[in-house]
Specification:
Elements: H1 3-7, E1 20-21, E2 33-34, H2 38-53, H3 61-69, H4 74-91
Antiparallel strand pairs: 1-2
Amino acid sequence: MLADLLDDPNTDPEEIWGDEWACPKCYDGDSIWIDFDPEEQAEIERRLKGIEDGTVETIPWEDIKKEFNEGLTEEEVKKRDERVEKMLEEDMPKTRGILNFNK
């Protein structure tokens, strides 16, 4: 079942991550599964290793936010930032094991 619906069956459909799955019988608010094909999984593992050992360059979050903000009003940016901040505060502790490829 979609993990967001296990957290809250009334989740707005626009807020549901369509590739995050969990078992309804054993879901504990943590460990979810994400659908990756083997090539995507290998690429993600390669990039994570590169980040850990410093061989992969990363893009600063502020640069990414500038792209997200392009074409938005200040009010739209503020509203989105508040929503993201709330999501991070509420959901990040639950998703810390999200990239565990050994299961």
